[in-house]
Write a structure and sequence with these properties.
The complex is a heterodimer of chains A (about 290) and B (about 280). Chain A has about 290 residues and is α/β, with parallel strands linked by helices. Chain A has 10 helices and 14 strands. In chain A, a hairpin with a 2-residue loop joins strand 9 and strand 10. Chain B has 2 domains: about 55 residues, no CATH class; about 200 residues. Helix content of chain B is about 70%, strand content about 0%. The termini of chain B are far apart. The chains are: A alpha/beta (about 290), B mainly alpha (about 280). At the A-B interface, helix 1, helix 2, helix 3 and helix 4 of A face helix 4, helix 6 and helix 9 of B.
Chain lengths: ~290, ~280
């Protein structure tokens, strides 16, 4: 399912959260990468139809979200994990996922329960399916959120900070799950963890103060930092960013800090830091 | 009816469902226990995947136990999603309803004890709109419903969900007020409280939809109590001024106007907006 975003803006009072954003998201996994306050959650809320844009147009699989009919059709085809999944205190894991499945028009009880079971099993929560959500840990609740997002087998899967609160093993399992799901659908996940992007994403959008600074493949983002990452002996004045590594050397992002500095292979994180540190300031954007 | 197993027979379909994790119908199980031929057929032709059968049993165990209210609503031919949405409304939970019953009962009791003396304000008639206004304002919205954001991105109709919840809240509270009013034997006609209650409740709901539930309730109560105080201090006869036919007509018009406005707003998704992320 293709998602086309044109000239999208969203303001809350005088605060402009998204600024004239243009994006085209193709099938596969797209990672929305950005610091806190970049507009990731607002973008996902708008794509999920939970929030209306102030300006601009969005088409999800050809359905225009500006019309009520288009929104309803898009809602039939998407799964959404919000940043924070609420729950009714009396609800069990099964009940919550089942409730969302009902709202997603899975009316046949037997088929619905089969799908609920499959979704809960996919996130490794079968053993606690009958437990109340309020008794679960934060990581388990996050997995309940992922289960409800995938229960209706959506064509478009929107995941806001999906790995927040997951332990390393669960994060690995989540990545496997998302990779297996992405074969024939569009997955959009927002994160501030570069390793999530590096592990699973086929495409990455770097969001900065409501604007897309970069949109392309992770390898292309990494190429942006070619010749801009160095190992030096001391912290230089000219560096955009620098920090001391475990080995004692100084890792520098920016122009060559000294003649003795050695160029090294940039990581995706280096490239992300380079792109965001070269971004226009808020005053320049205004 | 025979339950012998052959490929065209109904129990065979049920048995094949066992392999998909669906629990076997009791009558087919009973027949299998008695019929050696079918037992042999199952053993040879339909080897059971016990893991999946067990998973099916577990799923049945974990399946939501629907409440009696939800079952009753489903019997009234309401869709399952709507029945569950109504029963999940915060203002229809036991603790909230218990509080409403206590407040309304006390108001009815105090009114009953004092009788219709002079120009006194009947407590039940004053309190009923306040209680219901609070319940209506707290029945729907992002600051009330923990699953609001999730439910907003489903194809389920927001308008229907809102109206159903509001209708259920007003209906349940109306029954409580009617019973309390009847038991107290108040001076005013049995359902005189209804139009003022509907008007104040819907006014609160409209304000709550644009702002917050607390603001909606607060505004509704301030407007209502101001009207009551103004009338009672003006020397007019309170019951006829506030619950007479002309006043009831005004309440009806106000309630209708607020209801239409609310439906218009929610159809165009202009209310119950999510707050800015991180706030």
């Amino acid at each position: 399912m293709r998602v086309v975003v044109e000239n999208l803006s969203r303001s809350f009072g005088s605060s402009k959260v998204l600024r004239d954003l243009d994006l085209t998201l193709e099938p596969g996994i797209t990672g929305i990468l950005g610091p806190n306050g970049a507009g990731k959650t607002t973008l996902l809320r708008i794509l999920s139809t939970a929030l209306a844009p102030s300006k601009g147009s969005i088409k999800v699989g050809g359905w225009d979200l500006s019309s009520p009919h288009g929104r309803t059709e898009a809602r039939r085809r998407l799964g959404y994990l919000p940043q924070e999944v609420g729950y009714y205190p009396r609800f069990t894991v099964f009940q919550l996922v089942d409730y969302i499945a009902i709202l997603k028009e899975l009316d046949d009880r037997g088929e619905r329960h089969r799908r609920v079971r499959t979704a809960i099993d996919a996130v490794g929560l079968s053993a606690v399916a009958g437990k109340r959500i309020k008794t679960l840990s934060g990581g388990m609740r996050r997995r309940v959120g992922i289960a409800q997002a995938i229960v209706a087998d959506p064509e478009l899967l929107l995941l806001d900070e999906p790995t927040g609160g997951l332990d390393p093993e669960q994060r690995m399992r989540f990545r496997q799950l998302i990779t297996s799901l992405s074969a024939d659908r569009t997955v959009v996940l927002s994160t501030h963890l570069v390793e999530d992007i590096a592990a699973v994403c086929t495409s990455v959008v770097v969001l900065w103060q409501g604007q897309a600074l970069f949109h392309g493949q992770p390898a292309q983002l990494r190429e942006r930092a070619d010749g801009m990452v160095w190992l030096a002996d001391a912290v230089p004045d000219s560096a955009l960013l620098s920090w001391r590594t475990e080995e004692g050397a100084v890792r520098v992002i920016g122009p060559r800090p000294s003649a003795a500095a050695v160029a090294i292979e940039p990581t995706l994180e280096d490239a992300y830091l380079l792109v965001t540190n070269c971004a226009p300031t808020d005053a320049q954007l205004r | 009816m025979s339950y012998h197993l052959d490929p065209t027979h109904h129990p065979l379909e049920e048995l094949s469902q066992v392999r998909a994790g669906v629990v076997l119908a009791p009558q087919a199980m009973e027949h299998l226990a008695q019929c050696a031929a079918c037992e042999q057929f199952v053993a040879q032709e339909l080897p059971l995947d016990l893991d999946r059968v067990f998973a099916g049993v577990l799923a049945e165990l974990h399946a939501p136990r629907t409440t009696s209210l939800e079952r009753a609503l489903c019997r009234l031919r309401l869709p399952v999603w709507l029945a569950r949405s109504i029963t999940a409304a915060p203002a229809l939970q036991g603790s909230w309803l218990a509080c409403s019953v206590v407040v309304i009962s006390l108001a009815a009791l105090v009114g009953g004890l004092h009788g219709s003396s002079g120009n006194a304000v009947p407590p039940l008639l004053v309190l009923a709109p306040c209680v219901v206004a609070a319940a209506v304002a707290f029945c729907y919205g992002p600051r009330v419903d923990p699953l609001f954001e999730l439910t907003q991105v489903t194809p389920a109709s927001r308008t229907v969900a809102l109206l159903a919840r509001m209708g259920a809240v007003i209906g349940v509270n109306s029954v409580v007020i009617a019973v309390a009013s009847g038991l107290a034997g108040g001076p005013v006609a049995a359902f005189a409280w209804f139009p003022s209650m509907a008007a104040v409740s819907l006014l609160s709901a409209v304000i709550a939809a644009r702002t917050r539930p607390v603001v909606g309730v607060g505004a509704g109560l301030v407007i209502w109590t101001s009207a009551v105080l103004a009338v009672s201090s003006s020397g007019l006869r309170v019951t006829s001024a506030l619950w007479g036919a002309p006043a009831q007509l005004c309440y009806g018009v106000a309630a209708l106007g607020c209801g239409v406005l609310l439906v218009h707003w929610i159809r165009h998704e202009r209310v119950f907006l999510l707050p800015q992320a991180g706030l």
